[in-house]
Structure formats: structure tokens, C-alpha cells
Amino acid sequence: MDLGISGKTALVCGASKGLGYGCALALVREGVNVVIVARGAEALNAAHEQLLGARPRGDAFVKAVAADITTPEGREAAFAAHGDYDIVVTNAGGPPPGDFRDWERDHWLKAVEGNMLTPIELIKRTVDGMARRGFGRIVNITSSAVKAPIDILGLSNGARSGLTGFVAGVARSGIAARGVTINNLLPGAFATDRLESTLAGAAAKTGQGVDAIRAARQAAIPAGRFGNAEEFGAICAFLCSVQAGYITGQNVLADGGAYPGTF
């Protein structure tokens, strides 16, 4: 299927590896110009080289910006690389796992800054330009914990739920009639560094080995496995497509069937 977005320009955050990279790869393969942002320059440069090789069109560009998107300076660097984005994929490293009794105010503020306020700032910076041009796609990578909270991820549960509530309102405002959609993409257990950190946290809390925790987690997923970044990216690319123009304000859960609810 031709997603109809060749020649568009996308900003993909946290794109040096993991789910962010998977999204950038899927968009590059669709002929989208992509600006990738991440903090680690070494991993970012490696991702940049790989994405350049994945382009179906030689005239499409891929730019890499080594910056922390959760800071005003990082966001300025991203917009210095390109001014008007048609597609924005927000993504920032999740807060660390732990026990809420150990978290101080600064921990909460950092979580909210990274996983709620930063996506809102990116939406604010781009949504009106998208509406003027008659096309825009914003996809926020959040977490399945928004629907089924994980006890050791309280910082993430709180900050991402705040973003979800915000998006539910703004996605249904006047921008929807002007070709702009905003959706949240909720990953369950995907084989990423973040998952390994979560497994290690669970192992430390329970006293079990990481391998035992991993096996039990996979066994609880109806698909019988963890997801991979490439299939996650394909879902993201579809939400960015012209075909997805009637989907907005939604929380799209990709978790191999792990969430047991009907709604």
C-alpha cells in the first residue's frame, strides 16, 4: 500500500534506537524526509547511516540532530534543522522504575517534563502550521501502562496519562477538520533497552532472576513473544498515512493481546 506521504517531512524523537528508530525507518522507507533526534551522538550517527541506506528515493533527506528534545535548547535545535514538519513522532525515554515512596518532587517534575510537557510543546510548535497546509500527523509514543498501569512505573503512569488526557481534547478541536490528526501509540512489551531495564527492576523487587521474569512475561502475552521495533514502526507509519485521516484522538494499543479488557 502506498501511504501517500512520500515527500513529506517528519521529526522523529528518540530515534537512535528502539521504537523511535523503528518509526523513523518505516517513514524513510515510505519516501519521507526525516529528521531524527536523540541525545547520544554515537548511536544517532549509526542510525543516520542506516536510514540513509534505506531510502527508496535518493533525493529524500535524513538529518540527525544530537540533542535532548526535553529541553528548550534541544527543541530549538530540532527546528533549526527544518522549520515546518508535516509529521511529528514524539518519544522520550521513560522515567526509571521504582517505588513511589522513594520519589521526590524533582523526580515527578522530570517525568512530567519529559513525557507530558515535551510532547505538548512539540504539538504547540507544529499543529497550526500543519492546519494551514491542510495536512498533519502527530503520533505520541506513550505506553500500554496508560491502559493497564504497572506498579513499578508510577512516574510513567502519571505523566503519560496526563498527556493522554490533553490529547483527547486537542485532537478533537478545530484542527481535525483541517486535515490534522493526533493519536497516541501505546507499546506493550517490545524488545528494547527500556524493556530490559523494566525486567531488571522487577527482578530486583521480587528477588527472581531476570531470565525467569522475562520468560513469565512472554508467557503472559497471547502472541507468545515480545514485539519488535520494525513492526511497531509500521503501525506508526500507517497512522501517519493519508489513509488514516479519519483516525484521531485515539490510543492505539500494540501489545500482542496482553491487555485483557474489551475497551
Automatic annotation (TrEMBL):
Domain of life where this protein originates: Bacteria
Signal peptide positions on this chain: none
InterPro entries (alphabetical): NAD(P)-bd_dom_sf, SDR, SDR_fam
Similarity remark: Belongs to the short-chain dehydrogenases/reductases (SDR) family.
Protein name as annotated: SDR family oxidoreductase
Organism, as annotated: Parapusillimonas granuli
